[in-house]
Amino acid sequence: MAPKDFKSHRSFKQLEQKLTYAVFVDLALFVFTLIAAGKGILWLKILLGLLTIALSGAGCAFLVMINEHHRSRSLWILTAFGALLACTVVSFITGYPAPVLS
User: Fold this and answer.
1) Global pTM?
2) Which of the listed residues 28, 64, 78, 97 has the most CB atoms within 10 Å of its CB?
3) Angle at 11 between CA 63 and CA 28, to 5 degrees
């Protein structure tokens, strides 16, 4: 029987790995959002931007719901989701690199 600390450490590592994949998927969506905006494909920018906002918001909400938002071991994941969320929203508001509605 494994000690309780080992089990919780192992389960956190699995959670951290899955959330890391989610951060990288979110980052890829954000990059593709900027590429679509640069190419002038506004419907794709809106679609990918909304997916980025949804994934970032869900990631932040999930960390808050499982009470990991205040722990230093999860702070980098929360920061990554928050930064991507903020960058996407600011990109939509300022119209950079292309306006959402022209």
Assistant:
1) 0.83
2) 78
3) 50
